[in-house]
Amino acid sequence: MIEIVFAGRSNVGKSTLFSNLFGVRVRSGRKPGTTLKPNFVTYKDLIVTDLPGFGYVSGVGRDFNEKIKDFVVKYIEENSDRIVLAVHVVDGKSFLEIAERWESRGYIPVEVEMFEFLNEVCQRVFLAVNKMDKVDDRDEILDAIAEKLGMIPPWTRWRNVIFPISAKKGKIENLRNAIKERLVEIGRGDLIPVLK
Ligand code: GDP
Fold first, then answer.
1. Which of 7, 86, 102, 177 is 20 to 30 A off residue 124, Cα-Cα?
2. Distance from the alpha carbon of residue 187 to the mean position of ligand 1, in angstroms
3. What domain range is 8 assigned to?
């Protein structure tokens, strides 16, 4: 088996993106961040996994939030041999504000930690910066996000890693093409039809 995983905080638009890319509706109507169960799409020997959203969701206990993060980390560690791509989805509109809030309290933001972890464990990691339709100063925001995640700006130097998208508006062509290219790169162009 080979696997592609999607990870991200709750509410970044991961389910919306997943539906747009694979034509399936996941987690519809369920409260975000309240389940540990990942959603899967399978095609031939490929599994595409929508991991539960981690991070601090209001209305969900701190312990449960920690449990979700631990689950995601453990899942990725256990399956790292077959994971050919990890897509880390972030919210371009709120990423910096949330990261800076945690930094000011002396913590490493969970998304920074997760991105580092993914890069240590997975062969290839993409950063999907979603909700770009809500962002005005696009390049400035993308540069700052890149820098927070250890990539020296300008972000345009990282076009093979950073994909600004808007899942809600269906503007995901750059990411979709990069996923296709990754499949071709590993000699599995036959799996491209998994994408809608
Ligand atoms: P998840 O918790 O990460 O799976 O997030 P959802 O896919 O459930 O989306 C959370 C909220 O963000 C919903 O209200 C979506 O309509 C909204 N959303 C998702 N993608 C976008 C986007 O590209 N732009 C905007 N403005 N909103 C989005």
1. 102
2. 33
3. 2-194
